[in-house]
């Protein structure tokens, strides 16, 4: 059966709809995969957003415009981020194929193969498509099903979810009796969340005391609803994006205030760190920096004591001051506490020409943790 047999629908679609391929009108289709998409912006200013999204991905679609030269600065940066996050499974989409001649498309295909040579994307399929005219969208569906395997999920450990969205669903002027608790959206890394389950969010609420020391208080709540898009669930498992309705004060979740925090079973979440010791690796060249209208990759200089970096750990972005550097080890003081664990990957960005640019990555070896008060419940 050819690619025309693959179709994409919203999650509200019935599991076995009638086939609309000519000659198979009376046959029924079979549900193969539910897929959640995280759209990562290409603009360099939003690189931190892209890294946050990459933290929860099982695979990647790398989009390249056929009517532009390859690679564009952000394409190089995105590919570097994919390597840092160790996304093993990738499909490259050569979009806007309807706007160029076949010879130009073939030349760019060769440029793409040269660009990905020696990277984690080497050997990835390159699919020519037109999103506007829906050319080869069925082929993408087939590749997603066949080339991006469903990773093994851990359903038995205590639940752990990283928050990439949070919001207040109440409309202005709502009556007190109608006010609903805050909502956190994200992806479950392990374990199972259930309706009516008691949960903890770390680091929670944090502030500095008179001496400048950071204190944090986890948020304790209860799950009142679980949603995957428009589908209401009784329990949610790892994979995909989940909306968690809680009994939290909605002002705590308004305008993505919980982004970067970790939600899970009470007493089972990792420690909260204010200082980190990381083993780091710097890129040799700065990706995608443009100078006087031309692309110029400047050399990445060594980390220096006292400089400010931006760290991406999971879905959290925070500033960090370099306290000490020795060989490939660095000690960093965080501007905001982070709930994480040893061994986690860290993306490092430096301020270059008023933009945060990716300069390398690291792995957490140790750190200073905050004392978290016990659950009062």
UniProtKB/TrEMBL annotation:
Recorded superkingdom: Eukaryota
Catalytic activity: GTP + H2O = GDP + phosphate + H(+)
EC number, as in UniProt: 3.6.5.3
UniProt keyword list: GTP-binding, Hydrolase, Initiation factor, Nucleotide-binding, Protein biosynthesis
CDD domains membership: eIF2_gamma_II, eIF2_gamma_III
Chain's role: This protein promotes the GTP-dependent binding of aminoacyl-tRNA to the A-site of ribosomes during protein biosynthesis.
Protein name: protein-synthesizing GTPase
Species whose genome carries this gene: Urochloa decumbens
